[in-house]
Amino acid sequence: MNPGYNIVEAELKEFEGIFKNALKSDTPMLNRMMQYIVKTKGKQLRPLFVLLSAKICGEINDSTYRAASLVELLHTATLVHDDVVDEAPERRGFLSVYALWKTKASVLAGDYLLAKGLLLSLENKDFRVLELMSDAVRRMSEGELLQLEKSRLLNITEEDYFSIISNKTASLLASACAAGAYTVNQDEKQVDLLRQFGENTGIAFQIKDDLFDYGTDDVGKPTGNDIREKKLTLPLIFTLKSVPKETRRFLLYTIKNKHKDNSSIKDVIEEVKKAGGIQYATSVMEQYKQKALASLDPFPESKEKSALADLVRYTTERKK
Length: 320
Prior knowledge:
The chain is mainly α. Strand 1 (about 90) and strand 2 form a beta hairpin. It has 14 helices and 2 strands. About 75% of the residues lie in helices and about 0% in strands. The protein is globular and about 60 Å long. A two-stranded antiparallel ribbon has the order 1-2.
């Protein structure tokens, strides 16, 4: 169980009821799809951040539950659409919505989830929360498109990388934390502190995810999935910048032309390890972890503050 769940266990159950109710549809096929999504949902990490960010600032209320539901609705919509884009057969060990219902129905189901989230906020006049979350959706789309463009050209810089992961991954967590804070006291200083906390936590989370591709002593064998998909992440970007020209040419040629070959993927991983790409990415992840923790400093000590700090540590120390 992730840190913090025990602190808001009752609130998470309340949220689940609101979330399930928000998914209901009078269209039988859509209702079946929504029931399947509920059955196969993940760890609800983002609603957890909403609830803890609210509780560190004040008392959770109906607006907080709606914010948590909106975050989960938007997040789920993006996952359904992502699986269509990636033609992914699975999601969290289950058949994806795309695998079961194919492209047209999946795109429409994702659109439905987005619309339900918007309506949940508009009907209750949660305009600031909706503004925060809509900005995250815009940034996620921009991040995905920038990554698509850069992976085709294989010319991604470190600046591009941080722009991509800040938009793709961190923006939703940043907005979730900010929205949670806003629902209880509308103090924009606290809202911004928790937005920064979520942003830096999200970036650290993504760097950790990218490190899994290369494997370390504590997480087992490398997967090489990013290399297969021609995604240039921080360990590889650092390596390409650090190695001699002939090694750089070899790596780019391999990624472009041999990215499906297991032996060639191993060669790339070895070069990254030799060049210090793993150590570099780990040190940068640690910097973002410290930035996230620093954003919590102005808040008084509480079990919610400790839980948020533990979540950042969990993010960077997890084994999978």
